[in-house]
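Closing statement on the pyridoxal-5'-phosphate sub-project.
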Amino acid sequence: MARLEPVSLKQLAPQVITAIDSLKSDYGEFEMHPSQWVDHARVSEVLEELTTRLDQNFPFFHPNYAGQMIKPPHPVAMAAYLSTMMVNPNNHSRDGGQATTEMEFEVIGDLAEMFGYPKSHLGHLTLSGTTANLEALWISREINPGKAIAHSQGSHYTHTRMAEVLGVPSIAIATDDLGRMSLAALETTLKAGEVGVVVVTVGTTGLGAVDPLADIIPLARKYGARVHVDTAYGGFFRLISETLLDEESARHYRAISESDSVVVDPHKHGLQPYGCGAVLFADDKISRFYKHDSPYTYYASKEIHFGEIQLECSRPGASAAALWATLKIFGLSETGLGEILAAGVRAARNWSGLLAESAILDLYQQPALDIICFLPRVSSMSKLNEITQKIFELAGQGQKTEQIHLATYLVTHAELQQRGFDLENDQPTAKILRSVLMKPEHEQNVEHLHNRIEEITQIALES
Ligand SMILES: *Cc1c(COP(=O)(O)O)cnc(C)c1O
């Protein structure tokens, strides 16, 4: 087996830049038009200002950043994106991007296989999880016109917003003590007969909770509703659901194969830069809803073009190329991309264990994936909010190498009570702390994170 070593964009960039320059020169040299010439010194100044200003961000790349779901793409994805961007194909049509259209069909095939979708699926990349979900909800509306979108209270806010865009009602279904859609509450809503599609979130954005998809599917079918799975964040955990996740979550991951449509974001857990979501439909017959005949998008070949089966028009071929190259290196398997995700799950479990033993911090709920929420042990809602905010701020201060960056998550008194926390109800909501452990390096770092946060909590409680 080949030796595996660390890698950086600096190592990979020269190869692809040289190769694309050579590809271009094969067509004959020509000079850049003077209107596009630049003053090199000025460009250098601007780029220096840019790279300096980029330090106004939190250090998303560092294991001490354990806040929101943000991390840089893998260097392989960046090198593939960079080289393809130099040609800038548009996956709207084959005319706009022949090579990258084929790569996109390959990666969509890989994603379909990961979810156990039939060969007759239809799907494509999108610019985001938002547009991917919009597209699935639009198709649902066309199939079940006028009917509501049902989603859990823990689902992404995009579903309520997109229901407004689509002009259909939306209904938020209550959640249980692990933030998962309540089956009883869903059935009550389905019985009224007004639901056209149930949005099932497999890995909620806030808590990483897994809605009971395997049990929702027969229920939705019974009442004639479609089932759309929003697994924008959690989709790639399918790779390790059988081996590492709890049995209950694994059962629901398996059931994705029985859903009508599914959304996954390669720009979240697929090592890609932003601008890469994906939507898949189990039945390719939904393609009839996309019919258009515009005079300006002529297609030179008879093969299928993404423009004929997607809501968006222009899309970067570079996204398809970057995902394609990444999946050649880290395949959609337990030992490929799965290993990267597994490290985050273990990190979340290890930190959960440390939190459960802490005298001053407590775990909000057991994590299903790699997102954990925790809180200082205090007696009232107002105190909780105050101490959480103090911990959040103190942790992010000081020397760059000392900083720890967390996120916060807003909970209600009832949600805390549901999980066995008995706090004085002196205000309706309070912030708790939240960490998305999506970088595999977090696995080696949780003990340090925990110890520092305990120290800081002690200071916050005493001040
Ligand atoms: C992130 C996310 C979205 C929105 O996707 P974007 O790519 O940010 O537009 C929707 N649903 C879930 C569950 C998500 O985690």
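The longest helix spans residues 337-357. With this model delivered, the sub-project is considered complete and its resources will be redirected to Aim 3.
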